[in-house]
Amino acid sequence: MDFGRLPDLRYVDFRLPPDHPETARVLARARATQPAPAGLHVGCPIWTNKEWLGTYFPAGIKEPDYLHYYAQQFNSIELNTTHYRIPDAGTVRRWKEAVGLGFKFCPKLPRSISHERELFQADDLVVPTARAFESLGDNLGWAFLQLPPHFGPEHLPRLERFLLDFPETVPLAVELRHPRWFADQGLADAVYATFEALNKTLVITDVAGRRDVLPMRLTTPVAFIRFNGHSLHSTDYQRADAWAERLAAWVAQGVHEIYFFIHQKDVRHAPVFATYFLDKMRALTGIAVPPPFIIPQPVQGNLFG
């Protein structure tokens, strides 16, 4: 994820802001129906990670088998392939067959809807997209709409109309990027209230260069976090500690599900970071999600052994 990425981290204040005042109210209302344990779903943006061959993937496997082995390492994925094409029924069926029952796909809405049509007159695309996402069944987590950086508050009526019309059968999270969504607190609060009323989750994006997209406002009992790491820099671990502490507090208050997606420039760093983060979460919450593990590789026999 290039959004908000900086080459120099020396002057970045990575501290998490305090919770938005409305977050406690949303969680208090959800506390009575909180599952035990709360769901913790951790993943990456892609599964075709050739750099994992011989470590987190068996050496020599073919690309069609990557998802099966990815799902043994992570229990969720930020499904970016759907941003570029609507999957057909056969593709969705193969995805489901490759993963276990508890695995969650979080598909990104096609860019043809978000970036090309910009939510305008997109019903002919929304209907087949929703149908494809629905066919994931129990493997569907939260789909998410990533608005383009130039899509600002002047388009709020269009966004509201889109969210009102979006099929309720597909849980939807929304990522805002234009700075003006966050510059006026009154406007931001009105947008968050709309999301809450429509049961849409606000995506929280933790990136170095845009600390404004980190409002710590939950609009549903679901935390959907996109985390941009920096090659296992010391700040990655400090931020993992801070997130684990904040998420543990939200679990104590009543959060139902957590989706935490890890973006690292070098995909070999994602499993290392995930292991550290999951260990912290287990220590603070008791929620035990198996961390990624290096797969023992077969050793060829010694010719003279």
Automatic annotation (TrEMBL):
SUPFAM superfamilies documented for this protein: TM1631-like (SSF117396)
Protein name: DUF72 domain-containing protein
Domain of life: Bacteria
PANTHER family: UNCHARACTERIZED PROTEIN YECE, UPF0759 PROTEIN YECE
InterPro entries, per database record: DUF72, UPF0759_sf
